[in-house]
Write a structure and sequence with these properties.
The chain is elongated and about 60 Å long. The protein has one domain. The chain is built from 4 helices and no strands. With 82 residues, the protein is mostly helical. 66% of the residues lie in helices and 0% in strands. It starts with a helix and ends with a helix.
Length: 82
């Protein structure tokens, strides 16, 4: 496969992993105490965006490597080809 194919697969897996990682550690205003006037009570207090983007990147790299290994493994190809 060409490098652009790997980048495209990583990009798709990265977005999927982002939606898995986004809800971790979210605390709403109503769960923490007073709600700021004019905001939704379910709005998060801190989003920890940079940490979530870093975790997403690492997770997506691991998932991409495992997916590429699984797709290129001859034993798995023979099993799936039954």
């Amino acid at each position: 496969m060409q490098i652009l194919t790997y980048v495209a697969i990583y990009f798709v897996i990265w977005w999927l992993c982002l939606f898995v990682v986004l809800p971790f550690g979210v605390r709403s205003q109503s769960a923490e105490g007073p709600v700021t006037d004019g905001t939704d009570p379910g709005a998060p207090i801190k989003t920890h965006t940079l940490a979530k983007l870093a975790a997403t990147s690492v997770l997506a790299l691991i998932v991409t490597v495992l997916a590429m290994w699984g797709l290129s493994n001859e034993a798995l190809q023979a099993y799936w080809g039954r």
